[in-house]
Amino acid sequence: MENSEGVKIESTVVTEEPLISALDIALFVVIITVAYFWYFKRDKQSSSSEKKPYTIQPSSLSSIEQTSNSSFIKKLKSTGRSLVVFYGSQTGTAEEFAGRIAKEGARYKMKGMVADPEECDMADLVEMKEIQKSLAIFCIATYGEGDPTDNAMDFYEWLQNGDADLEGLNYAVFGLGNKTYEHYNEIAIYIDQRLEELGATRVHEIGLGDDDANIEDDFVSWKEKLWESVCSHYGIEETGEESNIRQYKLVDCSEVLPERIFSGEISRLKSYENQRFPFDVKNPYLSKIAVNRELHRSGDRSCMHIEFDIDGSKMRYDTGDHVAVYPKNSSELVDKIGELLNADLDAVFSLLNTDEESSKKHPFPCPCTYRTALTYYLDITSNPRTHIMKELIEYASDPKDQEKLKLMASSTPEGKKEFHEWILRDNRNIVHILEDLPSVKPDLDHLCELLPRLRCRYYSISSSPKVYPKSIHITAVLVNYTTSTNRVNKGVATNLLAQLIPTNDELPQPTIPIYIRRSQFRLPPKSQTPIIMIGPGTGLALFRGFIQERDYARKEGREIGEMVLYFGCRKKDEDFIYENELQEYVANGTLTKLHLAFSRDQPEKKYVTHLLEQNADELWNIIGEKSGHLYVCGDARSMAKDVHSIIVKVVMEKGQMTNSQALNYVKKMEQQKRYSADVWS
């Protein structure tokens, strides 16, 4: 409209005598244009100059702040500490041990700090020498097939690939492992040796904890000698001061609004109401139970086939992966604690770290009710460790109860024996202890501080995403057993799963939080590569997914290699799980051979290991002559070791090798991922 009016005015002016010539107008436009560009260019430069400290610098400041937050050295210096205890933990035990060491440092005038290597700039280890009488301790678990834990992976790779000068760094290492696994404490041993190679000084010899025996005893024995070495190295003495200082303080949250109170979420408040992808250990997916059926046909044991619905979740899994399931404690046990301690379980509270420098502000999501903490966040069914016995002493009003706790908390031979028999052998949990020592009445908030976190349970996925892209299957044995005190202990996860039965009506389906954990346990890249699978009992679960995947490839018209399965159970008519499926795979040619061992269907027990020895020619034909793959899944304590010995023997005899040559051959198979094991103890 304005442009149209302007044109009309200009036309009118042209018909009269011009007051301004066209040249004047052109010059005026040029001048205005130049002035415009000069002004805005200058303004832009000026703005750029003015904004520099606020646009470019903040990202720099942010990175500095981030570095500061990840710099454990700065925290040590600013708080007058000289001891830092790093942990590599998958289940929480290493983190717990690290906290106990840091706490005890006060007895030796070494103020301690617990640190997660994943949250730290580990290159700062080179600066530890700047702190007088400093010490770095590493509590490191070995996980899977000789792998570092998730939170120690970056540190491990930094040690492998770097060549930092760590002269002046004083250190000690305690490893957490399991002797039933081949790569026993491999990561801790590597870190101990690598730190020395980089110039660091070992203050105390490495400790190796065995979770298959008594890792608590291993840790306590190592820790005692550690402090002796520390005193000798630094020329210091124990102060004698007890270290029973609370790490967290109680905060009353009775006035907190209900929508700000955690009700079982792992990390983010209301995360189960507002689900966000991606899903992981801190953000699990609340999956519906689509199927829950019994696999055993008779007998007093139970084995469940469960299917988790992941339709619409965007979750993806591969054959061979694991699924993590977040359990919750039974209401019966939770209520029992409230009854024994005469506590209001519905009171809302929070535990706040007394160490303001700690990145861990709370031991679990807070604020919440005591009922929520005991149900979702705390492990109330495992055997408490000795430091909990020590902390409970002050709450015992009966001298006899007090003396018993003191004995079990001590490191004397008598104390260790009593702890082993009364806690471990009799399988007492915290509820049983409070029942059997009735005068022990700890403050419930302190008990919540002491108890370890309730961890997720991992299950091998027994399905293939090619066949079941919208669901995850697991195969789980219900855990129930009677202890020597005539109590029935129940597996936390499996007993919860047993109750989650989907309905056929319009009622809401039962749900449970899950996430997928990646595995290195994989089928060969080429479908025509022959494989041998050894999986007695629920060891079959993972191979069910393997067979489904190969069957899918066959139906697509692709060539598939030989598939030989060794399966064993007690009785054919009782616990032969997935029998109909397996027979169908044999009939259609997907399964080349199915070797079965039913241990109790005849007078003499028969196991899969007996069948392996009988089929030495078949074994060698596949793993030796055809360069096939061999997989073992199941019990690590005996079965997996026996299988390994048989394989070495077969390689010796059929491959005409010496014992050392056969061992090297099998070792090479493992390195080439042609011999894989997914086992548990």
TrEMBL record:
NADP(+) binds at residues 301, 538, 599-600, 605-609, 642. It is a single-pass membrane protein. Residues 83-227 form the Flavodoxin-like domain. Its cofactor is FMN; FAD. FMN binds at residues 89-94, 141-144, 176-185, 211. Its main location: endoplasmic reticulum. Keywords: Endoplasmic reticulum, FAD, Flavoprotein, FMN, Membrane, NADP, Oxidoreductase, Transmembrane, Transmembrane helix. Coiled coil: none annotated. GO terms for biological process: response to hormone. Its EC number is 1.6.2.4. InterPro entries: CysJ-like_FAD-binding (IPR003097), FAD-bd_FR_type (IPR017927), Flavdoxin-like (IPR001094), Flavodoxin/NO_synth (IPR008254), Flavoprot_Pyr_Nucl_cyt_Rdtase (IPR001709), Flavoprotein-like_sf (IPR029039), FNR_nucleotide-bd (IPR039261), NADPH_Cyt_P450_Rdtase_alpha (IPR023173). GO terms for molecular function: flavin adenine dinucleotide binding; FMN binding; NADP binding; NADPH-hemoprotein reductase activity. It comes from the Eukaryota. Pfam families: FAD_binding_1 (PF00667), Flavodoxin_1 (PF00258), NAD_binding_1 (PF00175). Residues 282-524 form the FAD-binding FR-type domain. In the C-terminal section; belongs to the flavoprotein pyridine nucleotide cytochrome reductase family. HAMAP family: NCPR. This enzyme is required for electron transfer from NADP to cytochrome P450 in microsomes. It can also provide electron transfer to heme oxygenase and cytochrome B5. This is NADPH--cytochrome P450 reductase.
